[in-house]
Amino acid sequence: MNLSRQEFRQQIRQLRRQLSPQFQYQSGLELVEQFATLPELTNAHHIALYLSADGEVDTQPLIEWLWQQGKQVYLPVIHPFSKGHLLFLHYQADTEMVLNQYRILEPKLKQPLIQPLTKLDLICTPLVAFDSTGHRLGMGGGYYDRTLEAWFKHGQGAKPIGLAHDCQHVSRLPIESWDVPLPKIVTPSRVWHWESHL
């Protein structure tokens, strides 16, 4: 069955939304166990994450675990002037939050909290679906494609790591010429990695 990118998005998002809150929370705990095995974590001190929405795997346990490990956590904020781009702001338990245009919570934009992309070690990216070659299907806004452009083109900057439920894996996604696979994707049951892209 040859589904379009949009059909994949609709199908997987629908699947995600049917997962119970208990399943989501348990998946979040299992995600931490897998994430903790990443060798990249040893020297990573500044890690960008995101708050789960729309049935995404629960990232709250991972955020809290990273805090416990003494890691600095950052969340994406939609850039107010540069359309389609993200800023990353330092996030703590008492950070002031606001709803963005997609009705997703993000830190209130404050200049001192902004962390330049060049100072991040890892960027955990959300995704709607991924396939066996490491290609990710995002929401279609291209925010993370732009954010990770330097890494995809030159291997510079923060390393991207996708996070997903196991049910978001499909054997093959329809890809475009500009699509670049992720080096690693972490799910509650395993770490997928594509050594040729490291």
UniProtKB/TrEMBL annotation:
<feature type="binding site">
    <location>
        <position position="56"/>
    </location>
    <ligand>
        <name>substrate</name>
    </ligand>
</feature>
<keyword id="KW-0436">Ligase</keyword>
<keyword id="KW-0479">Metal-binding</keyword>
<keyword id="KW-0547">Nucleotide-binding</keyword>
<protein>
    <recommendedName>
        <fullName>5-formyltetrahydrofolate cyclo-ligase</fullName>
        <ecNumber>6.3.3.2</ecNumber>
    </recommendedName>
</protein>
<dbReference type="GO" id="GO:0035999">
    <property type="term" value="P:tetrahydrofolate interconversion"/>
</dbReference>
<feature type="binding site">
    <location>
        <begin position="5"/>
        <end position="9"/>
    </location>
    <ligand>
        <name>ATP</name>
    </ligand>
</feature>
<keyword id="KW-0460">Magnesium</keyword>
<feature type="binding site">
    <location>
        <position position="51"/>
    </location>
    <ligand>
        <name>substrate</name>
    </ligand>
</feature>
<keyword id="KW-0067">ATP-binding</keyword>
<dbReference type="Pfam" id="PF01812">
    <property type="entry name" value="5-FTHF_cyc-lig"/>
</dbReference>
<dbReference type="GO" id="GO:0030272">
    <property type="term" value="F:5-formyltetrahydrofolate cyclo-ligase activity"/>
</dbReference>
<dbReference type="InterPro" id="IPR024185">
    <property type="entry name" value="FTHF_cligase-like_sf"/>
</dbReference>
<dbReference type="GO" id="GO:0005524">
    <property type="term" value="F:ATP binding"/>
</dbReference>
<dbReference type="InterPro" id="IPR002698">
    <property type="entry name" value="FTHF_cligase"/>
</dbReference>
<dbReference type="InterPro" id="IPR037171">
    <property type="entry name" value="NagB/RpiA_transferase-like"/>
</dbReference>
<dbReference type="GO" id="GO:0046872">
    <property type="term" value="F:metal ion binding"/>
</dbReference>
<comment type="similarity">
    <text>Belongs to the 5-formyltetrahydrofolate cyclo-ligase family.</text>
</comment>
<dbReference type="GO" id="GO:0009396">
    <property type="term" value="P:folic acid-containing compound biosynthetic process"/>
</dbReference>
<feature type="binding site">
    <location>
        <begin position="136"/>
        <end position="144"/>
    </location>
    <ligand>
        <name>ATP</name>
    </ligand>
</feature>
